């Protein structure tokens, strides 16, 4: 899967929860755009869509903070 | 689209139903009055694999699928909502470790949680903190190779008997999750009695006075205790409660069908009176609607679909509201008899109210569900605009 494909899938997922356009490097957690359920929804999305397992050692906000970070994390795990 | 249990699930459901009818339901009123669940009941649940139902076989559990586990919660909820809360909180600890525990936490705790050697309880709520859960006041101080926990937890189901607590506390101002054993110096519990419902759920206050625990007892990472660890646990909790409400509502309905067929007023059985029929019809329809929401949540859970979080919240919300109304009508149909300890419907009503408060109150679910609705609406509009442009 290419970086662009991962980016598109992730953007499309985020669009379900965030109504405004999010810049690729915008902090989605700090901006208060998501609710408390979003964190687990994001984990489930990553695991199901890309067939990878998010483990306890992956729990680092630098892996999930921005669209670019999420894509980078997925690429690293695939 | 198929909405049908597998033959294996039907068989399991039958086994759960028989177990609850024979071993739980006949004694639930007594446990309620005693405000206690006997040890042997908990041991029995563990022996037959119900306590650690969601723990995979590789860790010593039966590894039930989500629907089968839901059916178990439904049946246990039919017999005793208090006992359902044991499955709920114990399962929440199992779920948190399964999802976010380290390899050594999984290896050391899951087999014990599966056999009942360890009984889990979930320590999030505090005297000053209920719905505003990520702002818990308990603290964890990192020092050398350990954490020192200080604070108080309240309304902890089965806190009187649990020996492994998943505690959420602030570490450097960040919510974090820790496994704390009962025998940790500085750790103690005090029973809470005289509650409206869940009277045999052995609730306790948990006191932590400089409880020193090993660094390896941190679950997940610092800062992820609420969003991820408690998040995974609470999703599991909402799932259990949603299904348990179904069982409790079914118990109300069964009691009403029986009572209305035996009780005569104005020369005819209650079941012949149309205003009673109205209440029965509402019960039947709403129970079926809640069941479909629970099936849907279970289906998504087995698929690992991200929408399971919201759909479980909706199922819990609807089922808990539904059972409050069903139990209220059940007491109404029973009249004065329903208010007495001669009939279980008074217990059902008291327990039903608790269902609307635990694992996210009705109002918290409403906020989340409504916001999600607005997001979906805005997304649809945006997509339509983009389509027009293209």
Outline of the structure:
Chain A is mostly helical and about 80 residues long. Chain A is built from 3 helices and no strands.
List the helices and strands and how they pair.
The complex is a heterodimer of chains A (78) and B (390).
Chain A: H1 3-15, H2 38-50, H3 67-77
Helix pairs in contact in A: 1-2, 1-3
Chain B: H1 7-34, H2 39-47, H3 66-79, H4 81-100, H5 103-115, E1 120-123, E2 139-143, E3 146-156, E4 164-171, E5 174-181, E6 187-191, E7 204-214, E8 218-219, H6 225-262, E9 264-265, E10 268-269, H7 274-303, H8 308-338, H9 345-355, H10 362-389
Helix pairs in contact in B: 1-3, 3-4, 3-6, 4-5, 4-6, 6-7, 6-8, 6-9, 7-8, 8-9, 8-10
Give an account of the 3D structure.
The complex is a heterodimer of chains A (78) and B (390). Chain A has three helices and no strands. Chain A has helices spanning 3-15, 38-50, 67-77. The longest helix of chain A is centred in the first third of the chain and has 13 residues, at 3-15. Chain A is globular and about 30 Å long. The mean pLDDT of chain A is 90. Chain B folds into three domains: 7-115, Acyl-CoA dehydrogenase/oxidase, N-terminal domain (Butyryl-Coa Dehydrogenase, subunit A, domain 1, Orthogonal Bundle), CATH 1.10.540.10; 120-223, Butyryl-CoA Dehydrogenase, subunit A, domain 2 (Beta Barrel); 226-379, Up-down Bundle (Butyryl-CoA Dehydrogenase, subunit A, domain 3). A four-stranded mixed sheet of chain B has the order 1-4-5-8, covered by helices on one side. Chain B has a four-stranded antiparallel sheet with strand order 2-3-7-6, with no helix packed on it. A two-stranded antiparallel ribbon of chain B has the order 9-10. In chain B, a hairpin with a 2-residue loop joins strand 9 (264-265) and strand 10 (268-269). Chain B is globular and about 80 Å long. The chains are: A mainly alpha (78), B alpha+beta (390). Chains A and B meet through helix 2 of A and helix 6, helix 8 and helix 10 of B.
């Amino acid at each position: 899967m290419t970086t662009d494909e991962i980016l598109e899938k992730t953007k499309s997922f985020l669009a379900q929860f965030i109504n405004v356009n999010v810049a690729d490097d915008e902090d989605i957690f700090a901006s208060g755009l998501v609710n408390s359920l979003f964190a687990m929804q994001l984990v489930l999305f990553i695991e199901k869509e890309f067939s990878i397992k998010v483990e306890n050692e992956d729990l680092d906000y630098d892996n999930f903070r921005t669209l670019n970070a999420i894509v980078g994390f997925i690429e690293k795990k695939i | 689209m198929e909405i049908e249990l597998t033959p294996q699930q039907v068989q399991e459901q039958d086994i759960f139903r028989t177990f609850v009818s024979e071993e739980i339901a006949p004694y639930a009123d007594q446990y309620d009055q005693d405000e206690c669940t006997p040890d042997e009941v908990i041991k029995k649940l563990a022996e037959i694999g119900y306590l650690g139902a969601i723990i995979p076989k590789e860790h010593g559990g039966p590894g039930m699928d989500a629907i089968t586990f839901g059916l178990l919660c439904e049946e246990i909820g039919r017999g005793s909502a208090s006992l359902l809360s044991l499955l709920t909180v114990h399962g929440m600890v199992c779920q948190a470790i399964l999802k976010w525990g380290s390899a050594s936490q999984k290896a050391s705790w899951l087999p014990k949680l599966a056999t009942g050697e360890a009984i889990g309880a979930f320590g999030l709520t505090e005297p000053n903190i209920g719905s505003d859960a990520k702002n818990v006041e308990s603290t964890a101080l990192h020092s050398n190779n350990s954490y020192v926990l200080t604070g108080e937890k309240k309304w902890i189901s089965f806190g009187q008997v649990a020996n492994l607590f998943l505690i959420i506390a602030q570490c450097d101002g960040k919510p974090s999750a820790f496994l704390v054993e009962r025998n940790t110096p500085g750790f103690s519990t005090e029973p809470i009695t005289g509650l409206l419902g869940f009277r045999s759920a052995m609730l306790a206050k948990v006191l932590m006075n400089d409880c020193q625990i090993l660094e390896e007892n941190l679950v997940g990472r610092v800062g992820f205790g609420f969003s991820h660890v408690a998040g995974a646990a609470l999703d599991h909790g909402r799932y259990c409660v949603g299904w348990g409400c179904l069982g409790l509502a079914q118990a109300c309905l069964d009691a009403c069908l029986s009572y209305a067929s035996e009780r005569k007023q104005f020369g005819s059985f209650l079941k012949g009176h149309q205003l009673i029929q109205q209440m029965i019809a509402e019960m039947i329809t709403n129970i079926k609607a809640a069941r479909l929401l629970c099936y849907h949540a279970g289906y998504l859970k087995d698929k690992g679909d991200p929408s399971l979080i919201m759909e479980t919240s909706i199922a819990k919300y609807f089922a808990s509201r539904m059972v409050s109304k069903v139990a209220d009508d059940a007491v109404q149909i029973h009249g004065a008899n329903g208010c007495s300890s001669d009939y279980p419907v008074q217990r059902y009503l008291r327990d039903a109210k608790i269902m609307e408060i635990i694992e996210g109150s009705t109002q918290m679910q409403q906020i989340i569900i409504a916001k999600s609705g607005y997001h979906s609406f805005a997304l649809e509009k945006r997509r339509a605009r983009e389509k027009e442009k293209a």
